[in-house]
Write a structure and sequence with these properties.
By secondary structure, this protein is mostly helical. It has helices at residues 15-36, 40-68, 74-96, 103-118, 126-131. The protein has one domain: Four Helix Bundle (Hemerythrin (Met), subunit A). The structure holds fe (ii) ion.
C-alpha cells in the first residue's frame, strides 16, 4: 500500500526535476511499505544509498540551474539542501553505529521534506526557470 500518490499538480514542468521528485515520493512509499511489513531494517542500506544518489544528482541539478540563471533565492535554497544533507548523514551515522530503529524518525523527516521543500519551496523557482527557458 502506498502512503502517497503523485498528482499532476505536483509537477513543476521540468521533466528531469519532476522525475526526481517522484523518486523521493517512491522512496518514502518503499520505506512505508517495508515498515508496515516489519521489514524496515532490511531495506535501510538501500534507502540510504538511494538518498545519497538523490542528493548527488538532484541537488546538483537544481543548484546548477540556480547558478546558471542567477536565481535570487539561491543561498536560502542551497541552505535547505545542505541541512538535508547534514540530517541524512546524521541518520546514516546513527544507523551505522547500531541504532537501527530509526525508520520512523527518518520517514517523518522525509515526509516533512516532501511537503515543505518539494511541494512548497521548489515551486518558488518555477516562474524563474520558465522565464529563463530551463527545461
Ligand atoms: Fe530543492
Amino acid at each position: 500500500m502506498a502512503l502517497y500518490e503523485w498528482k499532476d499538480v505536483y509537477n513543476i514542468g521540468i521533466d528531469s526535476i519532476d522525475a526526481e521528485h517522484q523518486g523521493m515520493l517512491n522512496l518514502i512509499n518503499q520505506l512505508f511499505d517495508a515498515m508496515s511489513h516489519g521489514k524496515a531494517k532490511e531495506i535501510m542500506v538501500d534507502i540510504f544509498s538511494e538518498l545519497i544518489n538523490y542528493i548527488k544528482l538532484h541537488f546538483k541539478r537544481e543548484e546548477t540551474f540556480f547558478t546558471d540563471t542567477n536565481f535570487p533565492e539561491y543561498i536560502e535554497h542551497k541552505l535547505q539542501h545542505d541541512l538535508f544533507i547534514e540530517k541524512i548523514n546524521a541518520f546514516k551515522t546513527q544507523f551505522d553505529d547500531g541504532k537501527q530503529n530509526i525508520s520512523v524518525e527518518l520517514i517523518n523527516f522525509l515526509t516533512d521534506w516532501l511537503i515543505n521543500h518539494i511541494f512548497i519551496m521548489d515551486r518558488n523557482y518555477l516562474n524563474h526557470f520558465k522565464k529563463h527557458g530551463v527545461n
